[in-house]
Amino acid sequence: MVAGCLALVGLAVTGQAATPERLEFVQVGHWVYNDAAQSAFHVDGSTNRVDARADVPGANGSQVAQGDGSGYVVERNRITEFDKATLSVEESTPPPAPETPFVMEIAGGPYLVYRNAGQIVRLGDPAATVPAGGPLSRPVATTDGTVWAHRADSGSICELPKGAAVMTCPAQLPPGHGGGLTLVGDSPVVLDTTGDSLHRVGPDGLGEALPLGIKLSPSAQVANSAVGGRLAIADPERNQLHLIDISGLDQDHPSAKPISVELAKGSRFNGPLSSSNVVAMIDETRGEVLTYDADGKLKSTAKVPGQGTPPRLAKGEDNRIYVDSSDGSHVLVVNGDDGTVVDVDVDKAASSQTAGAPSADPEPSGDQPPPRQQDQRQQAPPNTQQAPPPVAKATPPGAPRKVSATSGDGSIKVSWSPAADNGARITAYRVTWTGGSTRVGGSSRGTTISGLTNGTPYVITVAAENSAGIGAGAGAKAVIPGPANRPAGAPVVTANATAAGKVSVSWTQPDLRGGTLVHYLVSVTGKGQRTVSASSAEFTGVTGTATVTVRAVTKFGSGSTLTGATGSRKVTVPAPSDPPTITITGVRVGTGLIVDVTANGKGASATCQAKYGDAVSASKACSGATSLPINNVGYIGAVTVTATIKTSGGTGSDSWTGSPSMRSGIPGGSLIWLGPMALVGLRRRKEKELL
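== Fibronectin type III domain-containing protein ==
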């Protein structure tokens, strides 16, 4: 490092290198707010030590964000800035919305993203508050400092370049589709949870779809970036973590099969969050952090100490993942290379460290790195400034997120993700519907409503409540209760036909009504019925107008199968524009005459027939090289044979004169060939002579 710095200085002095306007430094370590000590502490991830403290009273349960020269204690109702060199409080400002924001520590930042309010606050230089125009899903940022955000209401994919004050939206998901953003190769990629696909985001909109090969629930959450060529997607409703091969985004070959990892049933999860080689998730129910590699192998499981609300995940710029206990008493440091986890006891460090003073831990041993220069800057006098202004009063909670509902027999099961508490603990969730309401505890994430009328649609609304009041409600789509073991609904069928008589059929998965899909029954007029596991099929030899039908077969547990409602579509095979042709390529002797032809139906289904004298062959489907046998015929010498072909486009014919060939290939012009009836006559004549 010294040699590199001297070289840069030498280049600058000699004028051989341009001096940048501003050097960008990667932020090292992580800041956490400790409730007991009423202070922000810096955790050095490389040494797993607490090495700095800044007193910021009255900010319980808060997050801390760091920029180049300042740190920010982020509460629901105020943002308090402190100087990272002097560790003294500078000023406090109000946020644009009374909710808990998503923190991003990136170049040009940090940024606070108020997802419900649709506001992005840049705390770096120049500071700004940028309206997004609507609620946002979890954002991502590229290394150049560009923030990418997805509008949850409109589906727009928007970017905010470093230093900009206005967002632009170059792409958009289809109407009604949900999704989320991630990074692949430092470029934005959108996950379409409705279409189960990935798309690159470019200046001209969304790129080609890469199918995931799995079916996702609407609440699926994608990781911030790829790991080892795979992208982590958590589907908590199905208790699975999927690792998707993303090579198909840039290369013209099929993607490898997804790797799926089973998660603990009944748990709530936060994440996934990725580093260079590790995927981390928090099991909020069990209070554990889980780490996986790119192949889905579990690397470690560690308990997160502390009491209160679930722990928080944060990605550091130093390729580490930090897990804060809710009260800031502990920070778990996840190594971004191998997934190992180290618990840093912040409470213990707080008891031996005063504001502005370095850590009281013993000097590092010879195998530990020396203290950084930043530690010397922290040898500042104790903070003598006035305490920050008192915290603003709490406000009603934000709206619950990801509200969903599924039907049962006279019941509806409702689930949701937590609402922002906005300064006061959520004490309850109120669930309302037409004709009733119920109230559940503040830690609940779902409930089942019973006593409903089957066949009647219900819209369920969920609102959070704290000491300041009841927040805004969030609703799920209308759900119709019904008895269990109901057959599936009707698929939506699409069918296309070619002049060659090939019909291609595809369909959408219908409402399975709680059952498990076994297979589909697919039929086309005149072609019987097939059992199909996929969502498409092909039929050949179809003529005229045909009806395609598709039905889903489902099963409930170990019970018998149920056949669902029929989805259908009529399709007409188009008539070819050109008449068919036929060419006789030879005539052979068999059990009669065998006429060999080449048939061309010009894209349509064809039938062929051969004729010799009054004898004709059976009508036969033909295409390309075809043999037409004429039975029970006799001939002497040369013969004249005709062949005809018929399609919906017209009729064609050909004739041939010559001596048929024997099976051995010897010409049969001198052979007198008699049919079976002639042979019978000869046998009777011989019997009379013997008598």
